[in-house]
Amino acid sequence: SAGEDDPMMLSIVGKLGLSYVAMHKRGNSANMQTLTDYTDVVGDLLTYFNHFAQNALRFEIKDWILDPGFGFAKTVVQNYEILSRLDEFKVFDRPVLTGVSRKSMIYKRFNISPEDTLPATQVLHMKALQLGADILRVHDVAEARRTVELYHLLK
Asked: Which of 3, 25, 42, 56 is 20–30 Å from 9 (CA)?
């Protein structure tokens, strides 16, 4: 729920001194048409995380991770725009989590099954790392680990 469905969540996270993954979420899937109607998807996400950063300060959440929420109320095209501009999220000086593994942004693009997305997933993982991703949320751990190792060899 990105901490928005439970009005006590952020307060409790702060009081307990927990780490928190702040994932962008916009509404629910029942009104998907308006959910994906962004003026500037990255600009809107930056505004969202600016608001979250203010809440993190207010609730004394010191350790939080930024997750743009790939696939959540975003079109395939919007997901690729977010990925191509991932470096813009570094303005918050927070670790950036990227969760593109087996996502519809891959299998819908190529009309394949989620199980057949491994090569494309690894390409997107490499690009995400190049643009500043600190954490990859993955399904295929061994393959992702090799991608990260190759990234570090090439940087």
From this structure: 42
Q: Show the beta-strand stretches assigned E in 26-141.
A: 64-67, 97-98, 135-136
Question: Are 67 and 21 a contacting pair, CB within 8 Å?
Answer: yes
Yes or no: say if 59 and 11 are a contact pair by the CB < 8 Å rule: yes
Whether the CB-CB separation of 121 and 140 falls below 8 Å is answered with yes
Return the ∠ at Cα 125 (arms to 64 and 123), rounded to 5°: 165
Bridge partners (DSSP) listed for residue 112: none
Catalytic residue list: 103, 137
